[in-house]
Write a structure and sequence with these properties.
Oligomer: single chain
Structural class: mainly alpha
Helix content: 55-70%
Largest sheet: none
Radius of gyration: 39 Å
Distance between the termini: 38 Å
Shape: elongated
Number of strands: 0
Strand content: under 5%
Length: 565
């Protein structure tokens, strides 16, 4: 008898009408709302890549929590107006905002001794508004006196007079106080005064005197003013004056992209890679720009160059690398990246879908574990049906039964509306020897999808195994002479099971020539059919041919092994 093969149930061939055995579908063998037992520990669960990755995963999750907390704080700040141009907005002012004090300067001329004594007295008596008024008056009378400006900054800070404090820090910064500049820039950004930031930093930027932090502040300020082109001009001037700089090349790439100049952005990234070597972060940016132009092979090549430097912390790198590898049908690279993301616990829904597809053919146990993880995490029918299929393919019948039992009575996901559910039920019942239930399940598949040749084949094999001769004979009416190619093995075995040897022999003779690897099995099958038809001599001759062919095959294999050695 021809050996059966397990095939995917979603494949379709030409339409063949099969009589439905029963329209009454009784699933007595399947209880509801059960648990799904996990298969043997073939693959590690997410988050267990290696023993030393526990610390990394904890840090990764902590970073995600910090990012979520920052996003929530930013949203609250936007609602309150903190960090924005709050003087121009309606609604509630931030809690730290204090309205500017209306100050009337003290009358009379300035006296150093009197003013110093009065300032000390006001501070000791906690009359801060009077101390603020005194310092304000002194600055107006003696604008070059840095000490009084520092005093006005001190008292103004205590009273929440940030605009006045900014004015004093800005004056000190523009008059040579290096420490004042950093504080003025920080406060100007807080109070949404990008014009002051640009005024203080732009000249120094062009001469290449800014730190990376100051460059970030300057570029942000230009962005607030809607002038990224001017920021790019400052970056180009600094590069021209001071030579290549890794940080500035990255900023040039970013600003060029903001201006829509992808080619210029790519040139900056390529220059950085050429000078300083590839790294995952730059590779991601370069690959994304190339992908925008449809240059997927170049994008993947950029990722490949940085691959040796990619670590477990580079989750975005693995995500883009996997997507590009999948796009280019580089399945080995895609499998490596998707498996890494899965074991890190960082795989998305689409990563899991790709990993199931990539591992299913050669590693159905792995595909089953991933599909179960996707089902438990996302509760999408796609993963449920993949888990059904691979549990049957891997012969994990306990897992398959658990999945079938997990469907609640109300079936709110509607999985029983799909033929795949009933196909899985038929396979599970057939494996347990519950042939009536298997027959009803396969019949329901054919009722929902009459052209499903896989279900028809499974039904035939089940009837052959269970010895249901009468039903098998009824199914073969009008289907035995010219069966669909996918059903020929099953029909041939069914005819032999019914002792219809002449019909089986006619069908076997009409079959196309067997492939070299199947030639011996084809001869032995024919010999069995001729023997059953009453021609033992011819059967013996065919068996001798099969033995001779087997000997020739063994000699060819021996020569090939000798050649390799």
């Amino acid at each position: 008898m021809v050996a059966r093969r397990v095939v995917a149930w979603h494949r379709k061939e030409q339409v063949v009408k099969w009589p439905v055995l029963s329209l009454v579908l009784l699933c007595a063998g399947i209880a509801h709302a059960g648990t799904v037992p996990m298969p043997k520990d073939w693959w590690k669960a997410p988050g267990s890549l290696a023993s030393d990755d526990v610390r990394w995963r904890a840090e990764y999750l902590a970073q995600k929590e910090d990012a979520n907390a920052f996003a929530a704080d930013l949203q609250a700040s936007q609602k309150s107006g903190k960090g924005m141009s709050y003087l121009d907005q309606g609604g509630v002012s931030p809690s730290w905002y204090q309205a500017p004090l209306q100050v009337q300067p003290f009358p009379g001329s300035y006296s150093t001794k009197l003013y110093d004594l009065a300032y000390s007295a006001f501070l000791q008596s906690h009359e801060l508004q009077q101390a603020y008024r005194l310092a304000y008056t002194a600055v107006r009378l003696r604008p070059e006196d840095r000490q009084w400006r520092q005093r006005l900054i001190q008292v103004g800070t205590w009273l929440g007079q940030r605009e006045e404090v900014l004015r004093q820090w800005h004056w000190l910064a523009t008059h040579g106080d290096a420490d004042a500049q950093g504080k003025a820039v920080s406060l100007a950004l807080t109070l949404s005064r990008p014009d002051l930031v640009v005024q203080m930093l732009s000249v120094r930027a062009r001469s290449g005197q800014l730190s990376n932090a100051d460059w970030k502040s300057l570029i942000f300020a230009y962005g607030e003013l809607g002038e990224p082109d001017k920021a790019l001009e400052d970056v180009d001037a600094a590069l021209k004056r001071s030579g290549p700089n890794r940080f500035l090349l990255a900023q040039k790439a970013y600003l060029s992209y903001q201006l829509g100049d992808i080619e210029r952005s790519l040139r900056a990234l390529e220059s950085s890679t050429k000078l300083y070597g590839p790294d995952p972060e730059r590779a991601i940016e370069e690959a994304r720009l190339l992908s925008m132009q449809g240059k997927y092979r170049l994008a993947f090549a950029a990722m490949e160059r940085a691959l040796p430097k990619a670590t477990l912390e580079d989750v975005p790198f693995w995500q883009l690398y996997a997507a590009l590898a999948w796009e280019l049908h580089n399945h080995s690279a895609a499998f490596h990246a998707e498996k890494t993301l899965y074991l890190l616990g960082a795989a998305s829904q689409y990563d899991l879908q790709r990993l199931v597809s990539l591992s299913g053919e050669k590693q159905p146990e792995a595909a089953l574990v991933v599909a179960l993880h996707g089902w438990h995490r996302y509760h999408l029918p796609l993963f449920y049906f993949e888990a059904l299929y691979y549990s049957a393919t891997a012969h994990e019948w306990d897992v398959l039964g658990g999945l079938l039992r997990s469907v609640p009575a109300n079936d709110h996901d509607g999985v029983r509306n799909y033929p795949a559910y009933w196909m899985a039920l038929g396979q599970w019942a057939n494996a347990r020897g519950e042939y009536p239930l298997a027959g009803r399940a396969y019949a329901h598949v054919l009722q929902l999808q009459p052209d499903d040749m896989v279900a028809a084949g499974n039904l035939l094999w089940m009837l052959i195994d269970s010895g249901q001769v009468r039903t098998l004979r009824a199914l073969l009416v009008n289907n035995a002479e010219q069966p669909e190619p996918v059903l020929r093995d099953a029909v041939l075995s069914a005819l032999e099971r019914l002792n219809l040897n002449r019909q089986a022999l006619a069908l076997a003779t009409a079959l196309p020539a067997a492939a070299p690897t199947e030639r011996v099995a084809h001869l032995l099958n024919k010999a069995s059919l001729w023997d059953g038809a009453g021609y033992p001599g011819l059967a013996w001759t065919l068996r001798r041919q099969g033995a001779w062919q087997s000997l020739q095959d063994l000699r060819v294999q021996a020569r090939e092994r000798a050649g390799h050695d």
